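tool=predict chain=A
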Amino acid sequence: MKKFSKIVCIIAGIMLGAGIILAFIGFALGAKSSVYLDFRNGIRLAPQNEPFVYENYELENISEIDIDVSNAKLEIQPSVNGKFGICINYNNYTETPSVSTDNNRISVYETSQIKIGIFNIVRILSIFSSENTITLYVPVSDSTVLTSFIFHTSNGTVMTDTPLKTESLDIKTSNGSINMSRLSVSKSTLLKTSNGAIICDGAFAGNTEFKTSNGRIEVSGTISDTFNLKTSNGSITINADKPQSSYSLYADTSNGPI
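tool=predict ok
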């Protein structure tokens, strides 16, 4: 009986190994599906047959933007029709993002699930290829002021040189740089990444915090109130008006000049 069980285990191991090898070959050749272990629903196949695309360029009276996604970069472009717009282009995804444009708010989020990709290791490399892009189109007008602008992603860069005015700005990414210019924030700013540089210019008031664990921080423009800059590996460069009577400044790095 023990010998039979041992033979069964050996055969099962051989079949599992062969399945993994064939799965890797399929994904390397461009297969568009992934096998996932979902702790709530067991093993399942997540297809990815076609890219996900969402477009809407006729949004008016937008006061809030709230985006919480993974593996996507953000770009902000000037609007050509005086209205807000959004274009979402996902080439690498397992969950279709949900988009809402109701109640003067643009909201994009992905369904949160506890899962581990088993045979999708080859496609992990595509996380850093910037295949997933969210592009926002913002009216360039002195009267266009947002109440809140939130963008959270786990892997992706944030880049814009389009004028953006908001009372509150909250940008977080775990792998990617944040490069934003021509900003105007009146109440609070939080820019945070764990791997990447933070480079910004504009007018910042209220409570402002820039934080990265690996990368330099460069800021220029007009600052007031409280300004905190922190990195563990990188330089910190500040180009702001003097004297410092209108703001308090704290800058800290463990490895690099200030």
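Residues 2-47 form one domain. The radius of gyration is 23 Å.
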